[in-house]
Amino acid sequence: MKFTLTHILVNLKLTARDRAVLFFTYAFPLIFFFLFGELSKARQGAAALQIVTMVLVIGVLGAGFFGAGMRAIMERENNILRRFKVAPITPAPIVISSLMVGLISYLPSAVLIVVLAHFIYGMSWPAAPVSFLVFVSVGVLSFRALGSILASVVNTMQESQILIQVFYLPMLFLSGATIPLEVLPHWLQIAAQFLPATHLFTGLQAILVQGQPVWRQMTAVAALTAAMALGVFLSVKLFRWEKEEKIPAAAKLWVVAVFAPFLVLGVWEAHSQSSLEQQKILARQIDRGRTWLIRNARIFVGDGRVIESGAVLIKEGKIAQVFSGVAPDAAALNAEPVDAAGQTLLPGLIDVHVHLSAPGGFYANASDYNKPRRMERELAAYLYSGVTAVKSVGDPLDAMRALRPEIASGSWLGARLFFCGPLFTAPGGHGTEYAAQIPATYREQFNAQFVRMPKDAAEARAMVDGLQKDTVDGIKAVLEAGWSGHLYNRLPTSIFDAVAEEARRDHLPIVVHTGDVADVADAVNAHADGVEHGSFRAAIPDALFAQMRAQGTAYDPTLAVVEAMADLAAGKTEPLDRPLVQQIGPENLLSGTKKFLASPEGKAMIGEFPKPDLGIAEDNLRRAWKAGVMLVTGTDSGNPMLIHGPALHRELQLWVEAGVPAAVALQAATGNAARLLRQTDHLGLIEPDRDANLLLVDGDPTSDIHRTESIRQVFFEGEQIDRPGLFDQK
After folding, report:
1. How far apart are the first and last CA of the chain?
2. β-strand 719-720 against 711-716: which pairing, if any?
3. pLDDT (tens digit, 9 = 90+) per residue, 551-577?
4. Domains of the chain as residue ranges with CATH
5. Which of 432, 518, 434, 513 is nearest to 478 (CA)?
């Protein structure tokens, strides 16, 4: 130990006098820091985290391969080590000294980079500073050991330069240190998982961007530590004091042993691809951390207010400030400017009534219904359409539970998902008919995912409690008894009342599928949070609307599905030719739908559909608006002719055609919908501290509702969305 400490002190003094070492330890990383920072506009705060990670990894690579590896070879070549041979010292203190001196020299450089990033580029301080220092230390020691073993297995300086570059260059360019991993071809991303620097880069990003503790990166820490231990052990065993001592060619295979932990880790990652998912999520979080200033926009706030000319500052995925009139200079706010002159900025639209498991049409090939990530694509289609949040009101429970965190984590880019879970209905009630189309062996499994059919009030309460434990965002009950020729058993009022009461007790909003006035009355009397559809067959009494207003019950008229049913009955497929539908709908779905509806089988199926009266639905909506009922927008997308995403724009147009002011319709699709979801702290309003989910459109949609389809840009949690790229996700 005495010899080791003495050698460390001597080595530190020599290092402090070595201008080349000082340049590559301090000046060289700073060159990359400022170069990358200016090229990538790192003044965006969180974006600086990417630059810091890249520069730190470049520094660690240099400290390992050149600071330890190349220097050890030079000392042997220049006969410096020969002088130690006659001293009472073994190879172990020299190797350990090299590691410790490299660490002591590098840590101040790493801290300096973080300090500069904070004060110059506005980067937040590391949320887990101890984890950051521990992980950097493990990385430095590991790569110093890797450099030492490379130095041990080469015989000449020329040979070392070749071997070091063979390892250094791939790690430099494929680890994320210079080229973002997410832009590389998939096969190269897989290959990168075999490189130690990739795990160093990903671990550092997770600690800096997500504030993860070091124990969350124990796989990478274990691999780096194992490589360090093997590198030190073999460097000591293969240590040579003089350049005349040559090592056999076969001994160079020991390098494989040092890299073995990463070969094992690479094989596992190639199989699980968990690291690729983590890298994708980290990259998305960095994108969402950028700062934007949308200026010169007409701002529709979402609660009835309009700012005729203003600006919105987006920072760290949130709305940081809203300015009325002239905004500060973007550069002064370290923000990227978005000029929105002649455009309107709205909160992201919200569709509170969708069915993601239904495609909105008919595929010619049955296998297309089970395509991988089909429901994920539907959520991407909503985001493409400027719909940043949706509520599923009838889809398989487990599928929704798996899909929601995938969207929330950023692993898949799509509209934020809320879901009600299985429908509460009666045996033989509406919702159970879909099981008849499924083979008998799968019906029980389907029903468990799609419906709840309580036999009494006690079972109803237990089922609601069970769904609360399954983390549903709300409850949906069905009261509709069908229509002439297609009658369903109706959920008994006593059981329904128990469902509604337990939902309130569990703090879950409950919405009710209704078909006629009696259904609406029962829903309102049970203090439901929302009425879905209302009545398509008769006028809803004014007294019921007054009661809804008094209780705060929301009304979702779903005019789009009424129009779709009418179009189907008339054999009209022109709605599928609307521009936004054409942009979003898969070609085989649109063509397959047209072909099926023209077929005898399709015409027979259309005859089985209900024939709701659009005029009655429009009249109910107008009177609900005049009565002051809280209105929300849902489409029932997934039903035939209702392609996910564009249907909400058509819903808004139908409201205006029914006589409802465009501003009222837009408020229903933003602030009001967020109220129904109980998400006004996050969604539906352009106010500080809300999520930066925004839709920028040309013109003024409060004057011309069709302008909502003239989408200029969509922001989701602060990320400026590449809309066409949404459909290229994997």
Report:
1. 54
2. antiparallel
3. 999 999 999 999 999 898 888 888 999
4. 2-288 (no CATH), 292-347+685-719 (2.30.40.10), 349-683 (3.20.20.140)
5. 513
